[in-house]
Amino acid sequence: MRIAIMQPYFLPYLGYFQLISAVDTFVIYDTIQYTKKGWINRNQMLRNGVATMFSLPLKKDSDFLNVVDRALADALKLSDDPWRLTATHIVFETSSRLGSFRLMDADDQRQVALGQFKFFFDVLRDQPIRTTITILHNAFLQASMNSVDMTLQSDSIVRKGDTFGGSLGESFDHGRLTANTDWLAVVEPVQKGVYGLSMIVILIVMVWPGAVDRRIRLYLIVICLGILGNALVCGGLSQPATRYGARVIWLLPLSATIATVVWLKLRKRSPQPPQPLSPSDSTGMSA
Question: Is residue 48 one of the residues assigned to a domain?
């Protein structure tokens, strides 16, 4: 039996695969100390005919750990770095410095999309429980994210908008709400309280016998399922973001208000129970 052992490499050279093919057992030796300037998480590629170094970012940790103990950085977390490789950059970036799915031609986009679908279902078949738990976790996380912070124009949007100019020739600039967003710290807790109270009201109306008729109850069920569906699609299958929740969460207080008004009106219209007769009334009736 022929056995070979090598440390792991990121996109290894051709000889690495030839060695794997030539032996009966190949051992990946990852219990050695991580080499910071090695080829474990970086490599080179030709870019416009010039060899360019690129690497996979690692989570900050001791350089004295073994390879198996190092982990990749979270590439999807929010960052102020405009060149960070996030999911949004991968899909929508228009700069030639990064490149993206959006810059591909239609045929290449179709091939990438088909490959992503296949990859997703391969992962789902291999890890059905963990994948389902992750999707549900992100969906519930998305359902709790409803701040309006991402719906307000940022400095980058102002810079982009200013290049177009307005219909009256005025500059595109921040308004009163976006020039200083310190008010968000006060408004967001109030919003969460209103949304939470609205959800409680909706649940009470839905389960209270005779509170509303079937049409209103069905309407409330559709609203709740719609909000959860939005969280599942935008958060569970995409990247959780506050703007997705802010687009639909206003339906909760609106629906709670409608349900409360209908409930109160039905209570006023409901027939009053008969009052018991007084002794004098009963005597008069017998006479």
Answer: yes
